[in-house]
Amino acid sequence: MLDPKSALDALQSALDSAKRAGADAADAVFAMDETTSISALNGEVEDITRSEDAELGLRVFTGVRTATVVIQDMTADAVTAAAERAVAMARASTDDPYARLARPDELAAPSDIDLDLDDGHDPDLAALEQAALACEAAALAVDGVSKSGGSGSQSGRALYALATSNGFAGVRTGSRHAVYASAIAIAGSGSGMERDYAQAYARHSEDLESAETIGRRAGDRTAARLGPGKLKSGTMPVLFDPRVSNTLLGHLLGAMSGPAIARGTSFLSDPEESLFPPQISIVDDPHRRRGLRSRLFDGEGLPVGPRKLVAEGRLAGWLLNLASAEQLGLAPNGYASRGASGSPGISGSNIHLEPGALSRDDLIRETGNGVLVTELIGQGVNGVTGDYSRGASGFLIENGELTSPVSEITVAGNLKRMFAALTAASDLEFRHSTNAPTLRIDGMTVAGG
Asked: At the top level of its lineage, which domain of life is listed (predicted)?
């Protein structure tokens, strides 16, 4: 794997080439990923894959015009040719008055915070094979599971580096590990088939749940879905299981992004709106140790740190990169996301909705009658109006208890009204980059299958 110093040297070479080609300013991104994956089916290894990808993205500025090129060939001649091509493209492009590099006083300073993102382990093929097979076997051992839908394990490392022509240079490396399984259950008559899955991710292999635990979870989820019943349509409380509750945060973050606000394509308009009940707070923590999306600088070299996106129910401002901040007349706040290609977008880091006071079981008991959603299907969200309509499956809640599975239902509402009617349980776990506990939203429209 390319070492951090070599990555930064490659970026500096690209920036120097851009200046020689006539660019007024430039920034460059280097992204490298090495992943080994093993998939298994029916007790046999099905596939072993090793992927190695590396690319360099160079963005140049000529006055108020910009252009970006991406290359995989990083020899000196290829970098020089790419820089010349980028400058020619920028000169031929239209003006972009909002695009700029961060000023030196805005850039992140060197930090001694240890995010501990890389365990330094190279992939172990024998261990990956054992994990994939053990995960599948555990799923198949669950009563009610008829056959495997496949399983797998993965181990990899990635490097990300960013440099700008006005003095910023930063690099981070990280490892990642994953195990997953899918299972299939077929009703005794053969008239119904259900499928479900489980997966887990971690930066360090020692933090990953055991393959057997993940496999059993996939099997349990699949078996529980057999024999889905009918749900009478109506207005009722809907509980979102942690498997899907984090998607609601994704819709919120999209609406809070500076570019959406600047374009007028968000259902939000007030950066300090009281959107949630006062018991709800949502946190972004880029400094979480071993976090899946932890970082010390954003995609434009700005500093980042923990902050509340929603504080006691109230929004705490938009998520801004440099361009959207310029357009809105606000200060940037470290939410630029940058890959090798294209202009910077918007991204948070490790997001979570803080847990509530009630346990999941107590929240279900308090609900009385409703539905618990464990799977969402399709898109069905209008970012401009906030209208929400998703296909779903899950379980009936009757007299405060989970009863029969239901499938092919639709849950609908409007995100602003949904957020205002939200109650959080206490079962928050940090399994993904965006996490939420079980969430109940009262007064949703549910159409039965």
From this structure: Bacteria
pLDDT digits (tens, 9 = 90+) for 127-164: 999 999 999 999 999 999 999 999 999 999 999 999 99
Geometric angle at alpha carbon 85, from 83 and 89, rounded to 5°: 115
Please indicate, yes or no, whether the overall pTM of this predicted structure exceeds 0.90: yes
Tokens of 242: 């942690």
Residues 6+ apart with CB under 8 A from 373: 238, 239, 240, 241, 244, 392, 393, 394, 411
Q: Is the separation of the CB atoms in 245 and 438 below 8 Å?
A: yes
Rounded CA-CA distance 357/193 in Å is: 38
378 pLDDT band, cuts 50/70/90, is confident
Hey, how many other C-beta atoms are within 10 angstroms of the C-beta on 429?
A: 11
Q: Which residue has the tokens 């008991």?
A: 365
Give the model's pLDDT for residue 188.
66
CB atoms within 10 A of CB 74: 18
What domains lie within the chain, and their CATH numbers? 4-224 (3.30.2290.10), 228-449 (no CATH)
* Strand ranges (E), 322-415: 336-337, 345-346, 351-353, 370-377, 387-398, 401-414
Q: In DSSP terms, which residues pair with 402 in a beta bridge?
A: 397
Q: If you ran DSSP here, which 8-state letter would residue 412 be given?
A: E
